[in-house]
Every structure is written in structure tokens, then in C-alpha cells.
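Can't attach files on this board, so I'm pasting raw text. These are the components:
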Amino acid sequence: MAAEVIRTAGLTKFYGRRRGLAGLDLEVRPGEVFGFLGPNGAGKTTTIRILLDLIRPTRGEVTLLGRSPRDGGPTLRRRVGYLPGDFTVRGGQSARELLTYLGYLRGGVAAGRIEALAERFELDLELRIGSMSKGNRQKVAVVQAFMHEPEMLILDEPTAGLDPLMQQRFLALVGEARAAGQTVFMSSHVLSEVQQSADRVGIIRDGILVAVESVETLRRRAVRRVEVQFDAAVPWAAFEGLPDLIDLELDGAVLRCRLAGRADELVKALARFGVASLTVREPDLEELFFAYYRGGAGTDQPEGTGDAA
Amino acid sequence: MLRSVFGKTLWDGRRAIIGWIIGITAVGCLYAAFFSIVNTPEMAGAIKAYPEGLLDAIGFTDISSAAGYVGSTTFGLLGPALVLVFAAALGGAAIAGEEEAGRLDLTLAHPVTRWGVVLQRFAALIVAMVTAGLVLALALIAMSGPAQLDDLEPANILAASAQLALLGVFFGALALALGAATGRRNLANATVAIVGVAGFLANNLAASVSGLEWIQALSPFYYQAGGAPLRDGLQVADCAVLTVASLVLVALGGVVFDRRDVAV
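---
Top answer:
C-alpha cells for the assembled complex are below.
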């Protein structure tokens, strides 16, 4: 039995001539929360759909819980909870009807579990799914993935459509799953949500894994945009030459820069002046990639997001 | 109903299925009820004035007896046509429709096999067709007295309805198999329409052209009504042909479906 819960080697998928995955090497360890981060079209959904045997790889190896998704079949999928990137179900049924049905397909759900999850997410189970907002439908999707307490959770963009409060409740649920020893593999194109919940993050781009890092490392390397409004104009010399500061601009009483490492020196430099306001923006993926290529081989430039799933 | 793919399929489709069954039964009975109006010497004369080839082409063979009339109308023209469209709709929706709507991913990500989903959806289709046949048969039996269809044997009405249901199973299997193999509902439905029209013409026209009688044996309609179940009772061999053909189609569709990628 392989130690990894998910293992792929040279995983490649072509859709006709279009490439979905180009030799993905991925390892997810038991009990960890693994964030699978990448722009749209990078191959996240393709990877996930291969894991669930919805599509078959063109080349390469893949195992889930030590078995190939193809051979593992229903026995393997019984141990998995899946949240699809696009949760589409019949609109005419209530959430309770759908969840009861999916519970039977799963082979049973502990009594009261669906109600408890619904209550947590403030989801009305009697509501017709067709009449629900995008956010409420996503709650149904979350409930069905978690309700049978599977060993392995595979979540494709799980927080899409959830409001910030529900996102926090979702991340708390992920934390509990981790505490209970469940492994969570979740894709996202938003760094911050992955940062909050994941142990490690894999960054996928154009069908290959460009980096796997602990969240801590990622945070250290992440470039943040900083904008400071001072009470009065400040001297350039006070900030020039501070470590990890990029693209420093000083426009009278407004300072703009990008911070690529520890914030300590900058904060201490700022503290000598009257600060009216301070904005630190999390990097988006482009900036994250930029940080990677700047620190790495430096040959590749970030580009616009892809177009295909 | 929520315990299996089979039960959920019937439950989700209940309104459409009930609607179709009511429609098929109503139209079938309405036509049968005209027998007392049509069965007059004047009408027989008027029908005689038509060229025989034309009457054959639309399936009107013998409308002077109740069996001939109901066999030509309810079981010869409108019944099969409605059952065909009903079956194509259900069969096309079973896999391809779910897939095109983006709903198949979630089902298949559960602990079910693709074969299991195909067979359970097919079983639901069989239940819908058999129910349609049964309801139609019971309605015709109930009205046969008042509508002067007394010379129709209830057992034969049941036999003709069973063979009509089997025709539906066959066309449903065709649509389901094509949808499962390709993931395209329109392709499945269009093919059923083409096979339906071609099969109808083959059964009714080819029989009257010398040298082309063999074409009749290729038509699904030949195995539904060719043996005149309304007059002569259940045609077991014909039923067997439709059953085997349906199973082969579903098996072929299942084999391809099991191997291919599911579309997003």
C-alpha cells in the first residue's frame, strides 16, 4: 500500500489535440490538507476528474488511496467525497430529497448528520434547489461531499459562491476533517483561502506542477502590495534600501511598494512617521507565479489565465 | 424511490411519464372509439376508392373488423408513433441528457458503476413502457363493449399492447445506447426518428413491392404488429427479436460508455 493518498507520475491528458495535463507529478500525504492552486484552465479539474475516473488519462500513472481510479471502481469511490466544480442537479427537488438520495448511493449517512451540516451552513433543506441562490446551492454541494465522513475529500473550487462568513465555516469544517484524520485535496484559484486551511500547496500551471510548498514558505515568498498614506510627506531615504521591497514609489505623503518577504523592517520604518492608512493586499496568482519565477529559473513570465477547464 | 438510480430515475421522470401514458392511452382509445362510426358500408366504400398501395403505405389494411381497425390505427399508426417519441425522449435523456446537463459527473462520482447506471436507467425505461402498454390495454378492454369492439379478445389486446411496449423498449434502448456511446442526445433522438420513419416505410411499403419483401424483416414495426397480435395473440418469436435487439443495443452502448470520457 502506497504511503501517499494521491500519487500521479507523468500524468498526461489530451482532449483531442488540446492538452489538459502535460506530465503532472503529484503526491498528497495521508491526513494533510493539500491546496491545489492554479489559474483557470491550468488542469485542476482535469486532474480531479481523472481521480474520480470520470475521464481517463492519455498517459502516466495515477493512484488514489493506493489504487488506480479505473480498477478501484465503486469500492474506491465509496471512500471519497467529491464536490464538483460545477454542481448541477435537478432543480425540481428539495435539498433534503437530493441529499437523501445521494446518501443512499453513498451507502448510508449517519443519522442527523445531514441536518447538523445544514444547520451549520444555515441551509433550508426543504427549499427547492431550483429556487436557491448560487451560494445556497454550493452549500448543498458542500454538505453532500462531507456528509458520509469519507477518508478522502476531493473538492473542486469548494468556496465558489459562498459568502465570506460561509467560507469561514467551510474552512472550519475542513479543519475538523483534518483533525479527524481525513485527507483533503482542494483546488482553488484564490491563494488566501488555501493559505488559511492547507498544510501544503501545489501550484499547477499549463498542465504541470510548478511547485509544491508548505503554506509557510508560500507566505514568505508571496509578494504583497503595500500602500501607505502618511500624515505628511516623508523622506525617500527613510525607505530606500529596505530588504525585500520592490518597486518602491514615493509620491509626497503616499508610499507604494511591493513586499516580497518579512514585513518587520518596513513596519519599523513606517512607525517613525504618522501613518494615516495602511493597505496590504494579498498577492493574486499572477504575482505569486511572478515571485516563483523571479526566485527560480527566471525564464518564464506570468501570463493571462487560460481559457479551458 | 430515493434508494437507487433506478428509483430516482422514475421519480424524477414521474410527471413526464404519467403525461405520456395519459396521452398515448387517450389517443389510442379515441381512435378505437371511432370504429363504430367508421364501420359503415358507406365508409367501407369510401376506403375502397383509395388506391390499395396508399392504404398499405399508411398501414390501413383491413378496417372492417374491430381487430383490423384497431390494429391499423391504435396499434398500426398513432400508438407506435407516440410510443416511439416517448421512448426516444426517455432513452435520450437517460445518459446523454444527464451528461449534457452536467448532472452525470456527480452520479458517477458515487459508488456506482457506469454499467450499473446504464442498466438501472434502462430498467426504468422498461417500467415506463410496460406501464404505458398495460394502461392502454386496460383502457381498451374497458371500452371495448361500449365502442362495439366486442370481437376483440382481452388477451389479444394485452398481447398487442405488450408488443407495442416492446417496440418502445427497443427504440428507447436505441436512443439510450447511442446517447451512452456518444453523449449526444440530439444524435440519439435524430437516429431514432430516422430509423422510425425508415422502419415504418419498410414495414408497410416494402411488403407490397415484389422482391423487396425481405426488407420488412429489418423493420422493428414488423416485429411489433406484423404478426397481427390483436387477431392472433402474442407473437413470441417477434417479441424475442425485439428483446434480443434491445439487449444487444444496450450492451453495445454500455461497452462504449464504460470506456469513454464523460463530458463536463
